[in-house]
Amino acid sequence: MAGAAAAVTRRAATLLLSSRFRTPASRVASLIPIVGANNRRFLCASSVSARTAEPAEAASQLGETVKDFRKRLRIDEVKGGPDQGLDWVGKDLTVRGWVRTCRVQSSVTFIELNDGSCLSNMQCVMTSDAEGYDQIESGAVTTGSSILIEGTVVPSQGAKQKIELKVTRLVVIGRSDPTTYPIQKKRATREFLRSIAHLRPRTNTFSAVTRVRNALAYATHKFFQENGFVWVSSPIITASDCEGAGEQFYVTTLIQNDTEGNNFNVSKIPTTKDGKIDWSQDFFGKPAFLTVSGQLNGETYACALSDIYTFGPTFRAENSNTSRHLAEFWMIEPELAFADLNDDMACATAYLQYVVKYVLENCKEDMEFFNTWIEKGIINRLNDVVEKSFVQLSYTDAIDLLVKSKKKFEFPVKWGLDLQSEHERYITEQVFGGSPVIIRDYPKEIKAFYMRQNDDEKTVAAMDLLVPRVGELIGGSQREERLDYLEARLEELNLNKESYWWYLDLRRFGSVPHAGFGLGFERLVQFATGIENIRDAIPFPRTPGSADF
Amino acid sequence: MAGAAAAVTRRAATLLLSSRFRTPASRVASLIPIVGANNRRFLCASSVSARTAEPAEAASQLGETVKDFRKRLRIDEVKGGPDQGLDWVGKDLTVRGWVRTCRVQSSVTFIELNDGSCLSNMQCVMTSDAEGYDQIESGAVTTGSSILIEGTVVPSQGAKQKIELKVTRLVVIGRSDPTTYPIQKKRATREFLRSIAHLRPRTNTFSAVTRVRNALAYATHKFFQENGFVWVSSPIITASDCEGAGEQFYVTTLIQNDTEGNNFNVSKIPTTKDGKIDWSQDFFGKPAFLTVSGQLNGETYACALSDIYTFGPTFRAENSNTSRHLAEFWMIEPELAFADLNDDMACATAYLQYVVKYVLENCKEDMEFFNTWIEKGIINRLNDVVEKSFVQLSYTDAIDLLVKSKKKFEFPVKWGLDLQSEHERYITEQVFGGSPVIIRDYPKEIKAFYMRQNDDEKTVAAMDLLVPRVGELIGGSQREERLDYLEARLEELNLNKESYWWYLDLRRFGSVPHAGFGLGFERLVQFATGIENIRDAIPFPRTPGSADF
Fold first, then answer.
1. Is Phosphoprotein given among the entry's keywords (chains A, B) (predicted)?
2. What sign does the CA torsion over A480, A486, A488, A493 have?
3. Which end of chain A has the smaller Cβ count within 10 Å, N or C?
């Protein structure tokens, strides 16, 4: 079966790439004068004549000039404008994509074509006189197959869209056997779709999540770049003792299945005399791990370039099978020099408002999809984030407020308690009616060693930004820039000062007040899309027992 | 010694943060009216009065509104304009940064201040009547110390700069003991600077590399986003068998030093009856590795969203101690659906020209630094890349050309040979006089299984983009979209077809012609800066025996 399908695929593809089916550049240019042959990519760049610019002398003798890069016409460009495509009416164009549905009726066939550039399909209306109608008759145009369509934009009769494409020509590029294609019209469960992570971006939900994730990432870069921050790639593998043991993945070449994939015999691991692993023979000469945070490294660059941010993967070998945890996730960690906790809170707020606004403005269609199908009211919730002032209050005030609420919590409230999800949600959802809230100045016992001690000697200049539904989205702090305070804290916590020599150097040589925060990118994707399980917020989720694809 | 320095640091920092030394917002606004209090960050955001916008009702009762985010004034903003700061003459301003040098003369003191925002220092001229002059006298203002300077911009007498700052007030933020600060004026070797990777961004060379690296990264995102590509995060950890064994790092929790850091006894590794590692007890339930490429994963998303790119870390456990190899490096891997090799070459060319142009336009000062100190002529070389047409020729023609050259190569030239650096450099540097060259259609035996077979059945639709000095910068191919061809190739190479089930699915269901390329980001940084050793092109290099910091 696969063989037969493949043969068809091959024939179709060969056919498609053969000169017979190529659209000559001249014809294309006359077909879509508004677009211009120079701006559009057709299937083969070679099908467009070489550009007229003079090639280098050597080139003219020994090689050919590389052609200009032309964009393929995307459905989003046609339907994504304010007129939803009405300005394209009367134009001839070519689109390529995957068939979502094909409904053959007696006089007319409707093909819904999607190319991933937007949620909208291009509705293609085909009658039996169009070139390639035999492909419809032969049953080659099925859900999941890839096709090329040439046609004329016409106003649509349907309520769902303003325009549709009257097909003049159809070419099947790659078939899709309807009896085995795993994504059928019937709605599949999220669990099932995770088992076909290579195909799930072909669904509405996952293509929309992918586009919004992309927009959030780009908006992140834009925000920091526009504010003078420098992107720094913090290391992924680290042998630094700073990171502390526990919940880390080891990275090693001491164990290696052989090239045939045969399992490794433990006796081959080099050991010292007492049967312990001989780390000196490992790739890095000592134990090495996957990083849990780029912050300490980021601080070194902030103490030279002033304002930096990291955006890269981080890891936890935590055995928790929840909808909020991944073993591999992306983190954004800005670090601001000459800044205190107020600057940090202001930056976190401005950042969050910027990226949410960017998504609301640039992913309208996808956000409406989430608003209808994933989380009713999400657009209003996000608009609130952009428009409302964020509120900050101290941990001590937050505890007061929880105690006074007289509400029964699973974890009873008292000063010193690490706030749980139930408390965080009560504060953002009940007390502040859906506004994001920043809680600051936490007890030092429940926070990390590097956070700056406040004058009360009980609390540190830490802050958590809480949002409705998700809880903590951002955690940050002013860093302890005073060498003696930092050393004292390391000793209090029985941490090995020598391991932190380079981190302490930042306080020895030109120390400056600085602050930063961390944001789990997939949590942000959850927050902005309403997707419930974090495994659906990243293309290929890694969790206990699962690292396929 | 460290203790004494710390005490000073603490005092200075405490002083600085105390209200006594804060500049009230009103005064600041009057000091620098052109800038406006709302746009600038001073040391403490709290020192500026709350914004006038109405806080949420709850907020007014229970918390404070978070302040607006204000940028700190950066030296680049003053000196980076076309007038090199002359338009700031007469204005009062505050800058913060690290002292590069402090020259005390009888009547006047010159402080070169750098804040990492640009290569240029702010030359600060201080006379004994300025506030804080006692700090000069006490020797607290040394190389590496951090200070705050208030002053008035005046035209400079020096030839090196158009303006300087006449100091009205100096505050030492953090001292730097001149007897132990590792970065002294005397030029340090690159090797030594690698051993203090946490401080090397405070040198001219490494701060410039960091800024250019940042510009290349942002330009990468801009290019692809502006062309409709979607950023996809390919997985870092993978248990997929597709990646093939060899030169991979294993990721495991089967070995774990205890929380006290005591070495792990090999006997604790779970084994099967025959003494082999029991992978079923590992975190992912089977052997897992660090990825060597995101391409195959990227293809799955291109076959849904049409045009995507990855930009993330990849890994090689290759034991090579060269100036061209890293164990951890960042890769950019775009993948274009409905595209062939010509589109791929056109995209690679447009991409490279875009990012190089971006750096030339946005990092002028840094590029002039490289042109003077690192690689003479680099600006001309990069201008050539932007302006010259790229030439493409087939591998077969390239072999012809090498044979006809009658040049003696270490690796004798004949058809089927994998081109070596000597051949690549001869072609770009000698034959094409410094132009980038793309070589295409390589023998299938020397290329990867997934590359599309050409009609001659001997070559595949692969391309390598070669540049002067660096050699291969980009490698790409059209992918084999025909299921039967791909399966036959896997069998020929004795690869396990079952492992590739999901990759083959892309050819089973709606297969499309697609193509992509890969680019090692640190090679690009080398290419754009002239930095010779790749270990100096990434903040924290990972190589055999070295994963510190």
1. no
2. positive
3. N
- Decide if A391 contacts B62 (C-beta within 8 A): yes
Mean pLDDT, residues B358-362:
98
Q: Do residues B37 and B52 lie in contact, with contact meaning Cβ atoms separated by under 8 Å?
A: no
E strand intervals along A267-356: 289-290, 307-315, 328-337
Residue B260, pLDDT score: 64
Q: What's the pLDDT score for residue A493?
A: 93
Please report which residue ranges of A128-257 form alpha helices under DSSP H.
Answer: 133-137, 190-195, 204-226
Q: CA geometry: angle at B328 spanning B327 and B329, to 5°? A: 120
State the number of CA atoms in the 13 A half-sphere of B468 facing the CB. Answer: 18
d(Cα B272, Cα B280) in Å, to the nearest integer? Answer: 10
- Amino acid type, B279: W
- List Cβ neighbours of A13 (8 Å cut-off, separation of 6 or more): A173, A174, B481, B482, B511, B513
**C-alpha of B219 from chain center:** 11
Nearest to A511 by CA among A341, A344, A357, A300: A300
Q: Do A236 and B328 touch (CB under 8 A)?
A: yes
Q: Has residue B360 got a pLDDT over 60?
A: yes
CA dihedral A7, A10, A16, A21 (to 10 degrees): -50
A250 φ/ψ angles, rounded to the nearest 5 degrees: -85, 140
**Nearest C-alpha neighbor of A307 from the set B505, B506, B292, B211:** B211
Place of tokens 């907020």: B59
Min Cα separation B376/chain A (Å):
24
Q: What is the DSSP string of A99-128?
A: EEEEEE-SS-EEEEEE-SSSSPPEEEEE-T
Number of residues in chain A? 549
CB atoms near residue A184 (< 10 Å): 10
Could you report the per-residue pLDDT of B50-86, keeping only the tens digit for each? Answer: 333 333 444 446 789 999 998 789 999 999 988 999 9
Chain B within 8 Å of A205 (Cβ-Cβ)? no
What are the counts of helices (DSSP H) followed by strands (DSSP E) for chain A? 16, 19
Bridge partners for B476 per DSSP: B463, B517
Which chain A residues are closer than 8 Å to B539 by Cβ? Answer: 232-235, 297, 301
B416, B417, B421, B425: CA torsion to nearest 10: -50
Which of B45, B283, B330 is facing A342, going by the closest CB pair? Answer: B45
> Beta strands B92-104 and B250-252: pairing type?
unpaired
Q: Nearest by CB to A230, which of B58, B210, B538?
A: B210
User: Which residue stretches of B127-171 are H helix?
Assistant: 133-137
Q: Which of A28, A32, A152 is nearest to A90 (CA)?
A: A152
Residue B326's contacts (CB-CB under 8 Å, 6 or more residues apart) are B316, B522, B534, B535, B538, B541, B542, B543
The residues near B457 (Cβ < 8 Å, ≥ 6 apart) are none
Helix (H, G, I), strand (E, B) or coil at A146: strand
The pLDDT of residue B30 is: 30
Q: What is the DSSP code (8-state) at residue B534? A: G
Q: Quick one: DSSP state of residue A303?
A: H
> Looking at the predicted structure, is the pLDDT value of residue A205 above 90?
yes
**Span B442-494, pLDDT tens digits:** 999 999 999 999 999 999 999 999 998 888 999 999 999 999 999 999 999 99
Q: Which two tokens stand for residue A191?
A: 């669990």
**Chain B contact set for A397 (CB, 8 A):** 62-63
Owner of token pair 């590794």:
B269
At B247 the pLDDT is 86
- ipTM associated with this complex: 0.90
Strands B230-231 and B307-315 turn out to be parallel
